[in-house]
């Protein structure tokens, strides 16, 4: 694990650890590691990196790294034994996504054309286990991970996006993704999107999301998990959207037959 820990985190992930926020560094480190364990990137039984190696990779003190690992152990995610190291004890299990809501691609594209977007991170990497399985990727295959913040024309940030996209051959550059609509770039790769499914929920925002959306850490954000399918039925894009509820309202319009169907 020590030899590959750097591959699990992008440069943006590592830079998200900041000592000038109310959230202690050990808790920020703990959350980064916890998320990798929960999404299957660090599998059950895997040996965790040493405290010294974590300190070097994350740019933190060894005491901070030890506190983060102790938090993981306290939550039952890892087992720490003197002389044997620390091993993951969490069994990753994929969870089914329920209650899809049909979306409107043109409305999504229209939103993209009338707001501003800033790319925080763009990398072609191996996705977490669940993402790779959903996208139909084999072992070691990569997809594009994109982190963005969308703001109103007045400059108020209201949305934080993390997306994973497969099948992209060209056009996924920082310049393109800040000046063009992401859906248009996907289409330019010959991928025709024919169906969108969404899950709607509320999730407490992390330190980096709170900073970008001008929210308090732990404050609930309106959250959408959007899955886009190509005409052959393949899932090609997974997008997690977190919205500042004070600046964004998600509205759906249903025909009466659809509404009655929702009530039965």
Automatic annotation (TrEMBL):
CDD domains per UniProt: WHTH_GntR (cd07377)
Any coiled-coil regions, as ranges: none
InterPro entries cross-referenced by the UniProt entry: Bact_HTH_transcr_reg, Chorismate_lyase_/UTRA_dom_sf, Tscrpt_reg_HTH_GntR, UTRA, WH-like_DNA-bd_sf, WH_DNA-bd_sf
SUPFAM superfamilies, sorted: Chorismate lyase-like, Winged helix' DNA-binding domain
This protein's UniProt keywords: DNA-binding, Transcription, Transcription regulation
SMART domains linked: HTH_GNTR (SM00345), UTRA (SM00866)
Gene3D superfamilies: Chorismate lyase-like, Winged helix-like DNA-binding domain superfamily/Winged helix DNA-binding domain
Gene Ontology terms: biological process: negative regulation of DNA-templated transcription
Source taxon at top rank: Bacteria
GO molecular function: DNA binding; DNA-binding transcription factor activity
Residue ranges annotated for the HTH gntR-type domain, each copy included: 23-91
Protein's name according to its UniProt entry: HTH-type transcriptional repressor YvoA
Organism: Zhongshania aliphaticivorans
């Amino acid at each position: 694990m020590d030899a590959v820990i750097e591959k699990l985190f992008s440069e943006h992930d590592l830079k998200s650890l900041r000592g000038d926020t109310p959230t202690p560094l050990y808790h920020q480190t703990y959350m980064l590691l916890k998320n990798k364990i929960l999404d299957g990137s660090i599998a059950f039984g895997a040996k965790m990196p040493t405290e010294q190696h974590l300190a070097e990779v994350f740019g933190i003190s060894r005491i901070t790294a030890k506190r983060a690992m102790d938090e993981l152990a306290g939550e039952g995610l890892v087992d720490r034994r003197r002389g044997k190291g620390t091993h993951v004890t969490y069994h990753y299990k994929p969870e089914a996504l329920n209650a899809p809501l049909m979306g409107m691609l043109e409305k999504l594209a229209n939103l993209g054309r009338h707001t501003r977007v800033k790319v925080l991170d763009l990398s072609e990497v191996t996705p977490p286990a669940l993402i790779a399985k959903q996208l139909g990727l084999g072992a070691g295959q990569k997809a594009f991970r994109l982190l963005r913040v969308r703001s109103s024309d007045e400059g108020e940030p209201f949305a934080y996006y993390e997306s994973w996209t497969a099948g992209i051959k060209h056009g996924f550059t920082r310049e393109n993704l800040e000046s063009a609509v992401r859906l248009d770039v996907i289409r330019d790769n010959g991928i025709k999107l024919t169906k969108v499914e969404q899950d709607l929920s509320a999730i407490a925002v992390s330190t980096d999301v709170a900073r970008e959306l001008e929210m308090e850490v732990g404050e609930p954000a309106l959250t959408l998990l959007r899955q886009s399918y190509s005409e052959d039925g393949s899932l090609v894009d997974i997008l997690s959207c977190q919205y500042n509820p004070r600046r964004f309202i998600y509205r759906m319009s249903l025909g009466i037959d659809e509404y009655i169907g929702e009530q039965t």
